[in-house]
Amino acid sequence: MAPSRGDGIADGKPDLSYPSKLVQTLDAHSGPVNVIKYNHGAKYLLSGSTDRTIRLWNPALGKEIKCYNGHAQEVLALDITHDNAKFASSGGDRAVFLWDVPTGSVIRRMQGHFGKINAVAFSPDSQILASAGFDAKVMLWDMRASSRDPLQTLKEATSTVSSLLLPSSPQIIAGSYDGFLRTYDLRFGLLTDDLIGEPINSLRPSTVNPEESILVSTNPHAHSSDLDSSGNGNYNGNSNAQNKIRIFDRKDGSCLQTFRGHQVIPNKWGMIWGYGESHVLAGDKDGALWSWNVLDGKPLSDHPKAIHKKQITSIEMNPRGKEMITASLDGTIKVWHK
């Protein structure tokens, strides 16, 4: 099976371009920006920072709409309900916060994890919220009930769980520093585990064929001690770590393509499918944006230019491919148009 490609094709050749015209710089955060997330419809953007705030933006206009205060530690993860009325956040607090978007109030705090919570994700119907983190557990929370306890706890991982996807209602995909990509089918009580072999940083489902392929980023030196306590992303480990991004076939676990060449600070680096999945984008430790051709796995440039002053932590691509947003340890969010 060849790597999936969507409609990023022009005149028989794949369109490898991406939005590169800077139209807005959003700099209201006073610390590193760890995560950004489009709302459903991709008109608005949420951002979470080491400054402990979450901000809602109209990125095209460069306007901050609302600031959400409540976290006592860094914000590391965000997800939004399908109706855009609520969102979940997590980070260093060891609790998951459920927020009301218009009022800015915290509706619910879910506690049970022992350590940083790296990932939160809603099911497509927003009835289940999953959370995961340093304690190697995935916890499932029933959004229709007000119970203090999780609906279910998945304990198969043996190290930090870094990333979560809930692509369809009974299904959960979790990536861990133990090197396994685990897919749970809760309806039938099935677990499929694929050994990736290196600590998994992040996951991105195919936007064209989500049941067929998945983008997986790994770093052999990913570990919580690799970042200094300042939260500024100063890496104390091996700067020559071989970071990889790979496309895996979800049906048989085979690797379809591998992308390498960039160097990153472990734990906090962004990657994403390009529009039409003809290319893959990722940031490096110097703030440069790398792009690789999906067909041959080669970078479009061996020395891409820096677009941020520090590592790019999170990237969002508008579903129509006309807008891209990048966030960085330098504390800024940048909006790019074609």
From TrEMBL:
It is found in: Cytoplasm. Keywords: Cytoplasm, Kinase, Repeat, Transferase, WD repeat. One of its GO terms (biological process) is mRNA splicing, via spliceosome. WD repeats lie at residues 26-58, 68-109, 110-151, 305-338. It holds the Pfam family WD40. PANTHER family: WD REPEAT DOMAIN-CONTAINING PROTEIN 83 (PTHR22842:SF3), WD40 REPEAT PROTEIN (PTHR22842). This is Mitogen-activated protein kinase organizer 1. Its main location: cytoplasm. One of its GO terms (molecular function) is kinase activity. Gene3D superfamilies: YVTN repeat-like/Quinoprotein amine dehydrogenase. Belongs to the WD repeat MORG1 family. InterPro entries: WD40/YVTN_repeat-like_dom_sf, WD40_PAC1, WD40_repeat_CS, WD40_repeat_dom_sf, WD40_rpt, WD_repeat_MORG1. GO terms for cellular component: catalytic step 2 spliceosome; cytoplasm.
